[in-house]
Write a structure and sequence with these properties.
By secondary structure, the chain is of the alpha/beta class. The chain has eight helices and five strands, in the order βαβααβααβααβα. Strands 2-3-1-4-5 form a five-stranded parallel beta sheet, with helices on both faces.
């Protein structure tokens, strides 16, 4: 059986990752491919339990080290129980966030450094990387407008951090993508949902040779 493909969507809050991930799965299925839509943190019962701890933390919340460990633990369960088996069955796995979110949030904005996050990933998930990571890049002003409409002033523990933190996240994402152009596709996140979807499909064809 042919190994499946693993696609991760990355970007800061309000960039449209979740919408584009759903559209990609629909396009894959329309093309006759078996596809799995999942997310991080989450995707399995154990990882979803950790998600609740991360996004609605007890007490005063987690420090950056504890947060990174929790993300790595959730990812380990997700990889072992859902992602790796699905790929082995020949399915495409489309994930809303993966390792590079930890690299940008905890490693970059959180100050832990990239090597720390990569080491945790090597331990927890045996270094698994997507076949392609799609980074949706959206200007800060447009992100602010989208979040105001989406969240109505209410957000989770990570999404509710200050503008400087999220600017650092966005800058780290772009740095990671530019340093590894073979693994990343940077998608312009301005325009209609369908326009962005077409850009995503074009990137998959360019990087993986699959026409959808």
């Amino acid at each position: 059986m042919t190994q499946g493909k693993f696609i991760a969507f990355e970007g800061g809050e309000g960039t449209g990752k979740s919408t584009q991930a759903k559209l990609l799965v629909a396009a894959l299925e329309s093309a006759g491919l078996s596809a799995v839509l999942t997310r991080e943190p989450g995707g399995t019962a154990g990882a979803e339990a950790i998600r609740s701890l991360l996004l609605d933390p007890p007490g005063n919340g987690w420090n950056a080290r504890a947060e990174a460990l929790l993300f790595a633990a959730a990812r380990s369960d997700h990889v072992e129980k859902l992602i790796t088996p699905s790929l082995a069955e020949g399915k495409w796995v489309v994930c809303d966030r993966f390792l590079d979110s930890s690299r940008a949030y905890q490693g970059g904005a959180g100050g832990l450094g990239d090597q720390t996050i990569r080491t945790l990933h090597d331990i927890g998930s045996e270094g698994l990387r997507p076949d392609l990571t799609i980074l949706i890049d959206v200007p800060p002003q447009l992100v602010a407008e989208r979040l105001a409409q989406r969240d109505a002033g209410v957000s989770d523990a990570i999404g509710g951090r200050d503008a400087a933190y999220h600017a650092s996240v966005a800058a780290t994402f772009l740095e990671l993508a530019k340093d590894d152009p073979d693994s990343f596709a940077i998608i312009d996140g301005k325009g209609s949902i369908d326009t962005i979807h077409q850009r995503v499909k074009g990137a998959i064809f360019e990087h993986l040779g699959n026409s959808l």
